[in-house]
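Notes taken during the Thursday session

The instructor put the following on the board and asked us to keep it in front of us for the whole hour. The protein is CaiB/BaiF CoA-transferase family protein. We were told not to look anything up and to reason only from what is written here. First, the residues (395 in total):
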Amino acid sequence: MVMALDGIKVLDLSRLAPGPHCSMLLADFGADVTLVEAVPGASAKLGSTGLRRSEAAERAAAYNALGRGKKSIALNLKEEEARKIFYRMVEGADVVIEGFRPGVVKRLGVDYDTLSQINPRIICCSISGFGQTGPYANLVGHDINYIAVGGALGVTGRPGQPPAIPVNLLADFAGGGLTAAFAICLAIIAREKTGRGQNIDVGMSDGVLSLMTSAFSQYFSTGQPIRPGEYLLNGAAPFYNTYKCSDGRWFSIGSIEPHFWANLCKVLGTEDLLPHQFDQARWPEMIERFAGIFATKTADEWMAIMSQDDICAAPVLEMENVVTNEHNLARGMVIELDSPVGKVKQIGVAPKLSETPGQPRSTAPLIGQHTDEILSGLGYTAEQIADLRSRGVVG
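Then, after some discussion, the predicted structure tokens were revealed:
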């Protein structure tokens, strides 16, 4: 099967979520991704091949979807010999991904300026919290800090309450991993025109702010900032909200357009509210009234009712229900892969390409699982590999 990124070789130096997510997306569409990982410590229980083999390690790798479809080599890049190995890998690579703090790759000698001298076609992508430049560049942080600076955290939650903290989706995965994968694909296309690679600077706070484009377009136009729970799309409106059902579960309504609103009111028996959809003074009263109505039936009962008409509605699925939902299953968004510990479930590939579809090809490797294979491919003998491993250059 032809895949969109067949022939693209990626070296991934990253460790935390954004980089691995980026390279997972690329691997799912055919890229040959090699994780360049740290050599396990001397205190680790290593087998004859240097792998941390144990049932727990095998299971952790099998369920680590972010590592799927990849190979792994363990290199101690602080050692000159390890850097020489990496440079040889770069000669035949297309992309290098890293997620260190600004300046680290320069100190290690694996920065774009150095690598582009070895391979002018190389594309280097740096993923960091605040980017490589600016006053915040060297600050530490996590998703919550990046969405705070990017504006997303400040518009979530309910009035008078602390901001609602989402799982680390917005900065790590959308603003970071997904943005980086998009940028890398752009650079690959650009290289076809210029013949040269380039350096990519992905700041997760930038990515979050980009996701806020529409919200800020409105702010720039009207001068009215969005506050938590006071905006049509973040909890102020009765027709774009969540309601607790009789079984304790929640149900979401998104009936913004007037015809969807009319259908909603008909089903709920609130036709008297039809002319008042956008009367913001009445929204608190309407929310309270809707809450009382939704509390009379279970979430599944409301879904059965709402799905009979054109109403933007869906139950708020808990994780255990997401992965058994008939629609998610029909869309191939829950898959099974073979692994050393048996079949494991993972989340599937989101974009559906008709001619070159994505397909996860294997579960994640153990650290250094392919070290010997990769070094052999570079021309190292078994004796040389054993010597490098004995001195901690590779693992």
